[in-house]
């Protein structure tokens, strides 16, 4: 490694999980049902539920992977000790909204839920690990969906802001990094997962989706305002599903279509980081019969309460063609696209593109001129436990090494980057497929797709590799 190419001394190395994919204990100590609790296990049923969950809300029979997940709720001390052994500087997780407000619209929070996160954050701080906390990560109280229709209702803003203020007041001495919504732009592709919105037969889906997004933007801006007032030292950001699209050819139509595809995603960052609805989205609304209902003062609130940093996930790049019917397809998280012939893919068809990582880091920084935070990056793969509990996951090491290399190059390009948390440092339930065999971790969890297993934890080969990366601040890859 070139000696002059270094990560900042205070760079936050770590890993990221989500409460609903790891904690389990889905009805313990006063917790209510969330949207994620009704989603079934992997396969066709999972995707059907993501697109149209009503039948699964009405009938909760059958296996639901989030109900036990990896039992982090009861095993967090063991797990945090392993993260401490690796030398983590930070750990991103989320708070299960229904642990704090079981139905979502209560006036008074559930003390047992608040106490659990007090204890979790204390355990992290014991190992000098900074908590990085997402307020809502692919879940919300099912009570708010049934009563208000999820984020399609403006009334949910008040419920969220009450929840956020409760967190800021309770944990202001323990948490200095917050995010308002996980991958908020996924609302456009999976509205139930992203916003608790169930599209009704015959309605204008885009109208419902973008009205819900406006309510989320308002909630996010009001949370930013509250966070700055309650704890001026804290930083609060938005979080996007990071994607960048290449044109399939240099045909101008393909180039323009790739820009349009990027804007579908960037729009969600533009409102939260720049503070206003960009002009391009207004044309999109006109052409799709979308009319955003705003109240007096909404635009001012958005303008005056932009985020402190932009966080994002990055797993793959995309390819856009104006003649996609002739091209091979590839898979992604809640979306698919055209296969890039220059890239290899993961076991799940996600195309691996480290150079695209440097590209998107530069693109976001040029666009927003705010600090960035990479809060998800990793390889979902099938791991094999060999004799002696050995797990040789060199493919994961190679994936992460190549991406960290390009991340360092982006910093050299001038990108201001707060930190890097790999996705799923401990194996957990996949959000998209509900599987356990799609593993991301440095730590193996003995649990299968049907919920069988001892839940014991094993260190993979990548465990010691990432420990060395952190120890040398990215000098040894």
TrEMBL record:
Alphabetized UniProt keyword annotations: Glycosidase, Hydrolase
GO CC annotation: cytosol
EC code: 3.2.1.86
GO biological process assignments: carbohydrate catabolic process
The organism's place on the tree of life at top rank: Bacteria
InterPro entries in the record: GH, GH_1_N_CS, Glyco_hydro_1, Glyco_hydro_1_AS
Enzyme class, first EC level, given as a word: hydrolase
One GO MF term attached to the UniProt entry: 6-phospho-beta-glucosidase activity
Active site: 376 (nucleophile)
PANTHER family: 6-PHOSPHO-BETA-GLUCOSIDASE ASCB-RELATED, GLYCOSYL HYDROLASE
Similarity section: Belongs to the glycosyl hydrolase 1 family.
Name of the protein this chain belongs to: 6-phospho-beta-glucosidase
Organism: Clostridium paridis
């Amino acid at each position: 490694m070139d000696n002059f190419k270094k990560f900042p001394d205070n760079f936050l190395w770590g890993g990221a999980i989500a409460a609903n994919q790891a904690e389990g204990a889905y009805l313990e100590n006063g917790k209510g049902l969330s949207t994620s609790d009704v989603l079934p296990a992997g396969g066709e049923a999972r995707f059907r539920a993501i697109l149209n969950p009503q039948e699964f809300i009405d009938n909760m029979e059958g296996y639901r992977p989030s109900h036990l997940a990896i039992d982090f709720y009861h095993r967090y001390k063991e797990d945090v000790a392993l993260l401490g052994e690796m030398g983590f500087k930070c750990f991103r997780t989320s708070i299960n909204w229904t642990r704090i407000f079981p139905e979502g619209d209560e006036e008074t929070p559930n003390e047992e839920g608040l106490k659990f996160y007090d204890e979790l954050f204390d355990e992290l701080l014991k190992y000098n690990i900074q908590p990085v906390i997402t307020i809502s990560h692919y879940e919300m109280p099912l009570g708010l969906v049934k009563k208000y229709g999820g984020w399609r209702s403006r009334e949910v803003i008040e419920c969220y802001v009450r929840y956020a203020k409760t967190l800021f007041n309770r944990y202001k001495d323990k948490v200095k990094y917050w995010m308002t919504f996980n991958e908020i732009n996924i609302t456009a592709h999976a509205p139930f997962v992203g916003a608790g919105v169930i599209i009704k037969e015959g309605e204008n889906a885009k109208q419902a989706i973008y009205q819900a997004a406006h309510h989320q933007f308002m909630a996010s801006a009001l949370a930013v305002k509250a966070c700055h007032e309650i704890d001026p030292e804290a930083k609060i950001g938005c979080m996007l599903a990071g994607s960048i699209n290449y044109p399939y050819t240099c045909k101008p139509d393909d180039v323009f279509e790739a820009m349009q595809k990027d804007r579908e995603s960037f729009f969600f960052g533009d409102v939260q980081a720049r503070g206003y609805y960009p002009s391009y989205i207004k044309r999109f609304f006109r052409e799709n019969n979308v009319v955003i209902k705003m109240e007096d003062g909404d635009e001012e609130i958005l303008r005056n309460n932009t985020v402190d940093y932009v966080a994002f996930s990055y797993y793959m790049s995309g390819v856009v063609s104006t003649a996609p019917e002739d091209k091979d397809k590839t898979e992604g998280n809640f979306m698919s696209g055209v296969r890039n012939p220059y890239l290899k893919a993961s076991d799940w068809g996600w195309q691996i593109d480290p150079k695209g990582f440097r590209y998107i880091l530069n693109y976001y920084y040029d666009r927003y001129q705010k600090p960035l935070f990479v809060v998800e990056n990793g390889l979902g793969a099938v791991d094999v436990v060999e004799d002696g509990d050995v797990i040789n996951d060199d493919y994961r090491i190679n994936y992460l090494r190549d991406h960290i290399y390009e991340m360092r190059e982006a910093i050299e390009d001038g990108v201001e980057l707060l930190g890097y948390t790999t996705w799923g440092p401990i194996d957990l339930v996949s959000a998209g497929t509900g599987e356990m065999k799609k593993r991301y971790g440095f730590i193996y969890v003995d649990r299968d797709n049907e919920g069988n297993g001892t839940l014991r934890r094993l260190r993979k080969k990548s465990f010691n590799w990432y420990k060395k990366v952190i120890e040398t601040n990215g000098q040894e890859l």
